[in-house]
Amino acid sequence: MSAPQHAPASASAAVSGRSPRARRLGCLALALVPFVLIGMIVEAPSWIDDYRLARMVERIQAYPLPDGAEFGSFDPQAETTGGDSGDCWYTIRFPVSTDRPVHEVLSHYRKAKIEDPDGDLGDFTVTAWAMVDEPGGQGDEATATGPVIIDVDGVYSGSLLDGRCS
């Protein structure tokens, strides 16, 4: 008796230890590697700039709060909002609950010497949003106390390849 015609194919599959489907998937994965690497190279400048901005958020959180204040109910939010000629505009927003008037909280953060993503001290602007129309809110913006949302806005030199900063 002679061996069937397809025996050598199954013998080679048994020798290689992989099915034809597994080999095709392996080849497909290998073909995708250059595209994944290119994607990582393209995104790396954005990741680096996001890391620099995240470090500034950490420095803001480490900075002492004004007397009678504590961080609010949500974590700070940071975003790159655009740019021009390689400079990135950013906004960091965080809530503060306080029994102090808004102008005191603003003054506290405007005097802060917190390092920005470029390493400059205090090179940003600070604005505040007071919730004065809330039930039980007190007075106008100058004398309001309670929840305050602080915005820290500034510019840092982004990576040349970060598309958000072009």
Automatic annotation (TrEMBL):
Keyword Transmembrane among record annotations: yes
Assigned keywords, A-Z: Membrane, Transmembrane, Transmembrane helix
Membrane-crossing segments per the record: 25-48
Domain of life of the native organism: Bacteria
Name of the featured protein: Uncharacterized protein
Originating species: Nonomuraea rubra
